[in-house]
Design brief:
transmembrane monodehydroascorbate reductase activity, mainly alpha, ascorbate ferrireductase (transmembrane), metal ion binding
């Protein structure tokens, strides 16, 4: 989920995207496909974990990781629905395409950070901290932290670029 979502957002990066030379239409389609795959992975993971908890008679959604994970999956479903509105902007008659893009990008960043928080909370779980120890734990924790900084930087650069081009 985290890898696919990160790559889906980096598709639009003018500095790091392997699709720099492609049209915006191609980038949007790749973004859409990667986000859909990320959502399917999240739903599959949620289903497997829920089923496993059920089989073992354990309660679910009682930890911060479980609650933020569930919230992330639900939020991602909503964000994907919002993305569909960008494919068909005429469905939103009172909204400009620019406004829809701005809200989708901003709420996408919130969803991405929520996903990173869920991942980091999972790394604080008893199972993970007993399985992964020492330097490995810190390196694992750095992954979502660094990727979230890269994504936040990309979004802020996009806002600055848009603001400069408006003047």
């Amino acid at each position: 989920f985290s890898f696919l979502m990160t790559e889906a957002l980096l598709v639009f990066s003018p500095e790091t995207s392997p699709l720099r030379a492609f049209s915006r239409k191609v980038k949007v389609r790749v973004h859409w496909a990667l986000q859909l795959l990320a959502l399917l992975c999240a739903l599959l993971g949620l289903g497997i974990v829920t089923y496993n908890k059920h089989l073992n008679g354990k309660v679910h959604f009682v930890t911060w990781h479980g609650l933020t994970g569930l919230l992330t999956v639900l939020y991602t479903c909503g964000q994907c629905a919002g993305g569909v509105l960008l494919l068909y902007p005429k469905l939103m008659k009172n909204w400009t395409l620019a406004k829809l893009k701005l809200y989708h990008a901003t709420s996408g960043l919130v969803g991405y950070l929520l996903g990173c928080a869920s991942l980091m909370l999972g790394m604080c779980s008893q199972w993970f901290t007993t399985s992964v120890t020492g330097v490995s734990w810190y390196l694992a924790m750095l992954c979502p932290l660094l990727t979230s900084l890269v994504i936040m930087n990309q979004v802020s650069n996009a806002y600055l670029y848009r603001k400069r081009s408006q003047h």
